[in-house]
Design goal:
outer membrane lipoprotein receptor (LolB), chain A, 214 residues, twelve-stranded mixed beta sheet, Outer membrane lipoprotein carrier protein LolA, 2 helices, OM_lipoprot_carrier_LolA-like
Length: 214
C-alpha cells in the first residue's frame, strides 16, 4: 500500500499480548463503555483526526467517517476508502484510482477500528486520571499504557462521558513526538447495513487499477 491510515495503525499498535494491571475505578468505566458498543449490531460515526507534533510545530486536521459491524468496517478519510468484510481488506486510493487487496487477519496489524473499545482488556495497564468538564459535559479521563515498552505508542488517553459511557475522544501519544487525537463529532447506533456495505464493488469505480497483494 502506498499509504496507511493512522486509525488502523492505532488499532494495530494496541494489539499486544501481555497481562494487564487493573485500576478498579478505571476498569469499571471501561467495562461499561465496552459493553455499550459491543451491544450494538453496528454503528456509524463521523470524526476529526488531529495530528500534532509540538516539537516540529506540526498540526493537521482531517475529517472522516466510519461504519462498523463486529469485525467488519468501511472507512472513508483523506482520499482513501478502507473496506473490510472480516476476511478481505480493500484499500482504495482515490488520487491513483487504485485498490489494494489483502487478506484480513485479526491477529495481524490489519485490525478493526472497533478495537478501541476492547483493547484495554489485554496488554495494557489502565489508570483513572481525573474528571473534567468540556463543553458542558462531564468526562472521565483514563490513561492506558502498554506493557511492552518497545511499543512506539507509550500512552493512550480516553475521555468517556459520565452521562452514557460513550467515548468523546481518544488521544495516542507516540515516542517520536506525534500525538493523534480523534474526536467523535456524530454517532449513529445501528445504522442500516447490508452485505454491500462491507465489500468493494469494482463496477462503481470506473477504470480502477486492482493490485492483489494476497
Amino acid at each position: 500500500m502506498k499509504k496507511s491510515f493512522s486509525l488502523l495503525l492505532l488499532a494495530a499498535s494496541l494489539a499486544l499480548p501481555a497481562a494487564a494491571q487493573q485500576d478498579p475505578k478505571a476498569g469499571k468505566i471501561l467495562d461499561q463503555m465496552s459493553a455499550k458498543y459491543q451491544a450494538l449490531k453496528a454503528f456509524q460515526a463521523t470524526f476529526t483526526q488531529t495530528l500534532e507534533n509540538p516539537g516540529a510545530k506540526v498540526k493537521q486536521n482531517i475529517n472522516g467517517d466510519i461504519t462498523v459491524s463486529g469485525q467488519k468496517f468501511r472507512l472513508k478519510i483523506s482520499g482513501q476508502e478502507v473496506i473490510n468484510d472480516g476476511k478481505t481488506t480493500w484499500t482504495y486510493l482515490k488520487n491513483e484510482n487504485e485498490v489494494n487487496i489483502s487478506d484480513s487477519d485479526p491477529d495481524s496489524q490489519e485490525m478493526s477500528p472497533s478495537q478501541i473499545y476492547t483493547m484495554y482488556k489485554k496488554g495494557y495497564k489502565y489508570n483513572y486520571v481525573q474528571q473534567v468538564t468540556e463543553g458542558g459535559e462531564s468526562l472521565d479521563v483514563i490513561d492506558l499504557s502498554p506493557d511492552n515498552r518497545q511499543n512506539d505508542v507509550f500512552k493512550v488517553r480516553l475521555k468517556v462521558r459520565k452521562s452514557d459511557a460513550s467515548v468523546k475522544s481518544w488521544q495516542m501519544f507516540k515516542k517520536n513526538g506525534n500525538q493523534y487525537t480523534f474526536y467523535i463529532k456524530k454517532f449513529q447506533p445501528n445504522p442500516s447495513t447490508n452485505a454491500g456495505t462491507f465489500a468493494f464493488d469494482k463496477a462503481k469505480y470506473k477504470g480502477v487499477k486492482v493490485v492483489d497483494l494476497r
